[in-house]
Amino acid sequence: xxxxxxxxxxxxxxxxxxxxxxxxxxxxxxxxxxxxxxxxxxxxxxxxxxxxxxxxxxxxxxxxxxxxxxxxxxxxxxxxxxxxxxxxxxxxxxxxxxxxxxxxxxxxxxxxxxxxxxxxxxxxxxxxxxxxxxxxxxxxxxxxxxxxxxxxxxxxxxxxxxxxxxxxxxxxxxxxxxxxxxxxx
Length: 185
Hints:
Blueprint lengths: L1 E4 L2 E4 L36 E11 L1 H12 L2 H5 L3 E4 L9 E6 L2 E13 L2 E8 L5 E12 L4 E12 L2 H5 L1 H17 L2
Antiparallel strand pairs: 1-2, 3-9, 4-5, 5-6, 6-7, 7-8, 8-9
């Protein structure tokens, strides 16, 4: 199986299962969706949408602690994913390989937010991911009440035959994992 990348064809070795998949396989793969960066604005039509947040504490120190964890893929790890990435701290262009059981979630960081009261990153799906789309992991400090909130924003749709077939189950899994993300930091 091959996929387009800038006019040339690159073999796709990512199958949805973790055997033999590593970060080197991701380097030349294209994103699987066109709406790159859309988790920062209006979510695109034609996808399942998630917008979720949870208060995780209060105070500037709590915000800084949670922000550091988020930027080091802590929401993913805390939700039970095994994570390998090309960078220790998320930055635009970092390739990320999440594993949950026998399945892999190959992604690339497409946006980083580094503001005084908001930190996080968004990554997009690469070939071999069960879904096509983007997910943002962040933390927000509200100076009005001192609250610290974890946030997840995502849009996705099935990208493989088996995720289309199991779409109802996949939606439940996404809700459960999103709840884990929010409490992970």
